[in-house]
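User: quick one - fold this with magnesium ion bound?
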Amino acid sequence: MGIATAATDATLERFRLSEAYQQIKRNFHRHLIQQIEERSLDIDAWDAAKTERFVAEQMRRFVVEQRLAVNQRESEALVHDAQDELTGFGPIQALVDDDTVNDIVVNGPNTVFVERNGVLEVAPVRFADNLHVIRVIQRILAPLGRRVDESTPMVDARLPDGSRVNAIIPPIALDGPCLSIRKFRKQALTEADLVRYGSATPAMLAYLRERVQQRTNLIVVGGTGSGKTTFLNLLSQWIPQTERVITIEDAAELRLEHRHVVRLETRPPNLEGERAVNARDLVRNALRMRPDRIIVGEVRGDEVLDMLQAMNTGHDGSMTTLHANSLDDALNRLELLANFAGFSGSEVTLRAQVASAIHLMVQVARLPGGERRVTQVAEVRGTLDSGLDLCSVFRFDPASAAHVDQRGQS
Ligand SMILES: Nc1ncnc2c1ncn2[C@@H]1O[C@H](COP(=O)(O)OP(=O)(O)O)[C@@H](O)[C@H]1O
Ligand SMILES: [Mg+2]
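Assistant: Sure. Structure tokens for the protein plus magnesium ion:
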């Protein structure tokens, strides 16, 4: 791209963010809606090319009628944005289509961020006002049979392509409607990807593959967005094809390429607060389905007890993830969840149960620069007074930014 084009792009970007542009866009949108309603056009039945022709034609007339001073590129931008407005997700459609974007977060009409390669950056788009954001949220939710309004100001939903959507609007959200979209990667990350990104080493992956095949009970520990689910997915691929696997998730994110997989998904309560199916119900049911292994996407509630029990009673090779910031913290968190779930034994009993249920712990983290790393792989040898007796197998050394193989050390 030449310097002239780059300069024009920057100018165009500024124009797109300006109040003048937003005003023209609003008026043009209103004009389009009027045309569609007056002529009873069924634009939902049109394909993209037909919609574009219609919008472009209307734009030409609108520019003349309104005596607008817009150049060719600006008018193209208007046509493009108006089309997204009519049929897509409005100002964020281009971000939804951009495969390098993982997450999109909208904090009110004027602040949109995207995450690329783990780094959050400001996106050069904005909405006209709060209502505009809400309109786009409704358009995203409508095909799913959901909506947000004052009585249901928070919605958590999954799009047909697997992407997660969360919306929360005023009066609960104080600074305007918020929308978060976590896009579903079309291709799951592979071993080669993780090695290329420096997230793991070939030696570590070979070790883990072997442990999975030996039916080691395993837990992946990390913070939000640290790559737990991604790593669990990779580990699951190594389960022999002959085994029967049951997966239990709040939102089916795992993609196992096994013939013998039964996927179960929890269900939130309906509007009357009834008919919920929680993870604990599903773990109990899964045990009656003759599984070789049970995979729980994330333990975060009562199901912790059933999962530990399953791991302790012959469902070796079961795996899960847990939200915690360190391996020590993981034990605290398991103890906390177990107590909430009504565990009545002593701390010592519980710790012993955890130590015999979980054979191997993998810790993942998102570093400040956005990179994801496996930061530790540790064997659970038993319990100590202070916690679990862990033996580190691999560790990420931040100073050298490299993984250290600790086998043979002690
Ligand atoms: N090793 C990795 N390298 C690069 N991106 C990753 C890696 N692991 C996960 N991601 C990306 O990070 C985001 C969060 O990953 P996810 O596995 O859903 O995290 P968690 O389950 O811990 O919340 C996703 O967009 C995912 O594609
Ligand atoms: Mg997850």
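One thing worth noting: The first helix runs from residue 3 to 17.
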